[in-house]
């Protein structure tokens, strides 16, 4: 049904011309042309060039840098202004090394196991140790278990440890690493919750590109359950090794380009999506789609030949996966521009059918955006404006500085199945849905840059603090080092 709807939408845009816009208004011919341009445009080819052309784009890898150079070249070829690579710092380089793993006792069975990103390698000769299950990472429980932890591989019962939600619980899990290390634990394993021994679920959101204190890896669901059943009958020993390469701090680039505004060139709408990916699949949904939205929105807006009132800055972020390093670095190094940012748009949820925008819990922004969405996004079935506050992707650095932020909201059914997995490949992407998502980004960016007045004011530090407290993100953001109750010092 939805597919039929979107196909009809696409057909209507393909048949339309700028002069056929039905809703009167000064920007409406441009909006109609943007939609047409995107539905006839090369979104799918751009996504394939990125995802298949460069493959996994792990922060610090040659393929990430190759994709950044390629993206800058695309921006230049589209005639964008001020195209540049801007570096940010990553605390440590990390490359996944080959490994092996098996149950060594009471039977000998190979198992699938993959290192967690930014885990150190296993010691020379690998690890050969009995397992210990831990289902409660509270300091009191870890202190009680310390004698048993010594010399063991700790398997965290992720179903219990994360039952309060991944984002909240990761703080407690992260805080458990040092006590487990001090007690003599040799490694920490994270069972994946999904069938098929799939891997790629567990990411430590707090590494921030720093090397973790102990070797850590993920194991598959069915093999975890086998280990658990064997453990009921007696001790289980695992043998494994992985030879990750760790290198010193380095710099990776964000890719930046602009369409200069015709009346207020020193005010900006920023349109961003991260270019980097994890290293399992080929980063098609996460986040080749978001990067494609940025590149395609840039192409279509530049091709209008009539720039909007304000400038639009297009940014492909690096270092999102290990901890939003590119966007956090950018926000720290551009304090003057942040004061002149009208809004930040972010695309990082794959290419399901569009729904609309998630804005933070800001009634003023919701109220201001709703009429625009109803007028310009309803034909894409994307007029929803939801007051949901998250800080799980690159808008966070701007949200905590008071800038109005909008996160693209799409159906995440497919995304949730392939996110960070080896299965994150372009064959999962529906071309019409991708184009509809791209159109939502381009149209919204154009409208916010074209409006006479800014969509909503910046929040004061006190208002930001109240918002984060209200939605329960204040403590975790302080612990993540992404926000301080004191105004951020740029
Ligand atoms: Zn992402």
Task: Please explain how this structure is put together.
There is one protein chain. The chain has 490 residues and is α/β, with parallel strands linked by helices. Helix content is 40%, strand content 22%. Strands 1-12-14-13-15-18-16-17 form an eight-stranded mixed sheet. An eight-stranded mixed sheet has the order 4-3-10-6-7-8-9-5, sandwiched between helices. α2 runs antiparallel to α15 (431-450). It binds zinc ion (ZN).
Characterize this entry briefly.
This protein is α/β, with parallel strands linked by helices and 490 residues long. The protein has helices at residues 2-15, 28-39, 43-54, 62-77, 139-149, 158-161, 166-182, 221-233, 284-303, 325-333, 335-339, 363-376, 396-399, 413-418, 431-450, 461-470, 474-480; strands at residues 81-90, 93-95, 99-105, 109-110, 113-115, 127-134, 153-156, 187-191, 216-219, 237-242, 245-247, 250-259, 264-274, 310-317, 341-346, 354-359, 384-387, 405-410. The site of zinc ion has 6 residues, from α9.
């Amino acid at each position: 049904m939805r597919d039929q709807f979107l196909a009809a939408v696409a057909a209507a845009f393909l048949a339309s011309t700028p002069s056929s816009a039905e809703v009167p208004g000064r920007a409406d011919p441009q909006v109609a042309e943007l939609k047409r341009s995107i539905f006839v445009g090369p979104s799918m080819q751009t996504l394939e060039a990125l995802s298949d052309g460069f493959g996994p784009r792990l922060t610090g890898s040659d393929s990430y840098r190759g994709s950044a150079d390629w993206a800058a070249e695309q921006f230049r070829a589209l005639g964008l202004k001020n195209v540049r690579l801007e570096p940010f710092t990553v605390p440590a380089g990390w490359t996944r090394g080959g490994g092996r793993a098996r149950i060594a006792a009471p039977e000998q069975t190979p198992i699938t196991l993959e290192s967690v990103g930014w885990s150190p390698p296993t010691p020379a000769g690998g690890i050969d140790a009995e397992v210990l299950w831990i289902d409660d990472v509270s300091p009191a429980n870890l202190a009680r278990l310390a004698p048993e932890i010594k010399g063991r591989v700790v398997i965290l019962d992720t179903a219990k440890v994360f039952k309060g939600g991944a984002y909240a619980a990761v703080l407690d899990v992260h805080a458990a690493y040092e006590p487990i290390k001090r007690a003599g634990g040799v490694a920490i394993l994270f069972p994946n919750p999904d069938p098929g021994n799939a891997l790629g679920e567990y990411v430590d959101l707090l590494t921030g590109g720093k090397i973790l204190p102990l070797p850590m890896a993920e194991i598959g669901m069915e093999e975890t359950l086998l280990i658990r059943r064997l453990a009921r009958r007696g001790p289980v020993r695992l043998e494994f090794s992985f030879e990750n390469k760790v290198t010193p701090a380095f710099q990776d680039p964000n890719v930046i380009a602009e369409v200069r505004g015709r009346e207020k060139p020193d005010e900006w709408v920023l349109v961003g999506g991260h270019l980097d990916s994890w290293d399992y699949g080929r980063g098609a949904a996460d986040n080749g789609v978001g990067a494609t939205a940025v590149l395609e929105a840039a192409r279509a807006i530049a091709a209008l030949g009539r720039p909007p009132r304000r400038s639009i800055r297009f940014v492909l972020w690096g270092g999102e996966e290990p901890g939003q390093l590119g966007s956090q670095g950018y926000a720290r190094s551009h304090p003057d521009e942040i004061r002149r940012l009208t809004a930040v748009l972010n695309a990082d949820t794959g290419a399901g059918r569009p729904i609309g925008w998630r804005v933070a819990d800001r009634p003023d922004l919701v109220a201001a955006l709703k009429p625009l969405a109803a007028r310009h996004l309803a034909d894409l079935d994307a007029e929803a404006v939801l007051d949901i506050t998250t800080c799980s992707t690159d808008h966070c650095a701007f949200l905590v500085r008071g800038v109005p932020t909008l996160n693209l909201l799409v159906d995440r059914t497919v995304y949730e199945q392939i996110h960070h997995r080896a299965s994150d490949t372009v064959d999962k992407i529906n071309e019409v849905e991708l184009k509809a998502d791209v159109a939502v980004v381009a149209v919204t960016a154009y409208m916010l840059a074209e409006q006479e007045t800014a969509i909503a004011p910046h929040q004061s530090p006190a208002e930001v603090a109240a918002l984060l407290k209200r939605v329960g993100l204040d403590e975790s953001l302080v612990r993540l080092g992404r926000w301080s109750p004191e105004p951020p010092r740029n």
